[in-house]
């Protein structure tokens, strides 16, 4: 098959390299990020073909994103939105341990996504469709794009994975719960942080939350509790894993890394324990390195640095 197909909003990232408030000015670094392209890059580095559907603006930031995705071997099915700039994330390194993020995304390329952007032939040829809750909250058009992609995947027998990725800047918890429900019902695999699962179920214990999410539809549920580890609940059983102990450099993107590791193992036909083991290891690389996706490991690195020997 075509491997991973995903759809999302990818933005430029301007990151301060100075540990102090931005109001005093800063040295800045330029990159890009998007939950869905982070997963695509992560899976691609582990040998899985990946295609991303998205909109970008008519600007140099879009050129950077296209060029980098090409360099990573991710197929980009991009439509240029002539009326909207490429979105932007401004990341302030307030202290060495605290990052503040401002989004410039609600009027940016990506909000114009619609069902028309979803190529049915492409989705039907995929081995997996991966989507997140972010597009649901970006407006009716992006939400329809996700819903349509999921319908096409289901009709074609393509497995669907969903990372909830709740963004409080885009929706209240109540709005999010309502938007996410049908997506969860249609998913084969759901990734949720413990906070997201609590928001949706009103429960606290990971095993209870997983049970409640199963009742909503998905046979495979992963609850991620950050440094406190993760729980995979699936038809083969329930598997808990500790997070890998690393020096924490940057936690943003860890969830996408986790999903990439998990889904790459899933598509390679590995069993449940191998899926969560690989997820935890790829997330460890992400946490121990700077940037939302730059530090993601290749398959060769995962082999070299097995167990707790994460490169840092
Ligand atoms: O999961 C990390 C992503 O969320 C980040 O890289 C960019 O899409 C993004 C967002 O919404 O913050």
Order of helices and strands: EEEHEHEEEHEHEHEHHEEEHHH
Report the CATH superfamily.
Ribokinase
User: CATH architecture, please?
Assistant: 3-Layer(aba) Sandwich
- How much of the polypeptide forms β-strand, as a percent range? 15-25%
Q: Any ligands, ions or cofactors bound here, and which?
A: 2-keto-3-deoxygluconate
Bin the helical content: 25-40%
Topology, number of strands: 13
- Shape field: globular
Low-confidence segments, given as residue ranges, are none
Count of DSSP helices?
10
Order of strands in the sheet with most strands: 5-4-1-8-9-10-11-12-13
Tell me the domain tally: 1
Structure class: alpha/beta
What is the CATH topology descriptor?
A: UDP-N-acetylmuramoyl-L-alanine:D-glutamate ligase
Q: How does the major sheet shape up?
A: 9 strands, mixed
Rg: 18 Å
CATH C-level name? Alpha Beta
Distance between the termini: 34 Å
């Amino acid at each position: 098959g075509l491997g991973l197909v995903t759809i999302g909003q990818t933005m430029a990232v301007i990151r301060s390299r100075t540990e102090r408030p931005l109001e005093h000015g800063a040295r800045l670094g330029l990159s890009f990020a998007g939950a869905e392209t982070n997963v695509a890059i992560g899976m691609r580095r582990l040998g899985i073909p990946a295609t991303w559907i998205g909109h970008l603006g008519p600007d140099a930031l879009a050129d950077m994103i296209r060029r980098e995705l090409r360099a990573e071997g991710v197929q980009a099915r991009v439509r240029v939105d002539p009326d909207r700039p490429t979105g932007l994330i401004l990341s302030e390194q307030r202290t060495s341990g605290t990052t503040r993020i401002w989004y410039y995304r609600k009027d940016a390329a990506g909000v114009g996504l619609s069902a028309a952007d979803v190529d049915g032939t492409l989705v039907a040829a995929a081995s997996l469709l991966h989507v997140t809750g972010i597009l649901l909250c970006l407006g009716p058009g992006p939400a329809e794009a996700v819903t349509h992609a999921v319908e096409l995947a289901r009709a074609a027998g393509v497995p669907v994975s969903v990372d909830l990725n709740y963004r409080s800047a885009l929706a209240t918890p109540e709005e999010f719960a309502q938007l996410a429900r049908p997506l969860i019902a249609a998913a084969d695999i759901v990734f949720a942080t413990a906070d997201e699962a609590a928001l949706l179920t009103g429960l606290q214990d990971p095993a209870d939350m997983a049970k409640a999410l199963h009742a909503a539809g998905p046979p495979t549920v992963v609850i991620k509790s950050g440094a406190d580890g993760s729980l995979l609940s699936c038809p083969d059983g329930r598997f808990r894993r500790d997070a890998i102990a690393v020096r924490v450099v940057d936690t943003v993107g860890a969830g996408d890394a986790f999903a990439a590791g998990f889904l790459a193992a899933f598509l390679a036909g590995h069993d449940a324990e191998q899926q969560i083991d690989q997820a935890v290891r790829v997330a460890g690389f992400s946490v121990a390195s700077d940037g939302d996706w730059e530090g993601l490991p290749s398959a060769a690195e995962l082999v070299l640095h097995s167990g707790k020997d994460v490169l840092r």
